[in-house]
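[job 0412] stage=complex_fold ligand=heme C status=START
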Amino acid sequence: MRNIRLLTAIALTASIAGLSSFSAYAQQYAAVDTTNQPLSNEVCATCHGGEGQGNPVVGGPSLAGLEPWYLRKQLENFRAGIRGSQKDYIPGNEMQASVARLSDAEIDDLVNTIAGWKVIENDHTIEGDLSNGESLYANCAACHGADGEGNEALGAPGLVGRNDWYMFRQIKLFKSGYRGVHPDDTAGKLMRPSTQALKSDQDVNDVLAYINSLDR
Ligand code: HEC
Ligand code: HEC
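[job 0412] stage=complex_fold status=DONE, emitting structure tokens
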């Protein structure tokens, strides 16, 4: 019995460790070809969950609760290859391929449909030092708001209630130049410099733990 528990714990640890590795994603995604899939909410559900709650296994964040203006912008950016086109970042490629053929009318439909989805409370998966997180967040507040509520005029989305594991990855992508570097990515370029102030993964965890604490 104890051995079974131990094995389960090892398997769980291994799969969590695998989650943080981009190459593990690459292997998983090699088998998925989305080019001929019909465009429907079901296409999105595969990777973003049946109720838009997100799917950490494939790296698709929750969509329910995203501001319509931000959702539209990201769909347009993925469609145009402004986001998700680096060939060695497979989750981004898969998302890009999934929306590459959307028409403007289909984007309108998706934005309207997703706006009606019930917001699901996301689990907090990240822990960190709240006081370090709070002082780091002072930098972010200028654009994302003191309470993480976002700022449409600056194109900065709300951060409260988002999946923390997804935000962790996005911060790393901005930091390493996988997001926010395309010449036409004005909003991404605004965001990118702030990530340099987060010196370590611990800093990223701390600021995300603080953002989680605003989720009340
Ligand atoms: C094959 C899997 C897959 C499919 C199908 C898919 N997505 Fe995604 N989507 C992802 C992944 C993975 C990400 C995160 C990309 C990253 O890490 O940069 C993502 C990111 C997004 C984002 C960005 C969210 C944010 O906070 O910036 C939006 C919006 C989105 N998807 C909407 C959709 C919609 C709408 C559909 C259906 C038309 C769809 N996706 C279909 C995998 C998918
Ligand atoms: C100068 C303004 C600015 C500052 C400061 C800033 N951001 Fe951003 N941030 C943005 C903008 C604009 C976007 C949207 C980028 C896009 O459209 O792709 C963004 C996007 C993000 C995203 C991705 C959201 C998603 O759904 O994919 C995260 C996470 C994020 N910011 C966290 C932070 C954190 C944490 C800080 C502080 C360390 C910070 N930001 C500081 C402007 C800013």
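Residues 130-213 form a domain with the Cytochrome Bc1 Complex; Chain D, domain 2 fold (CATH 1.10.760.10).
[job 0412] exit 0
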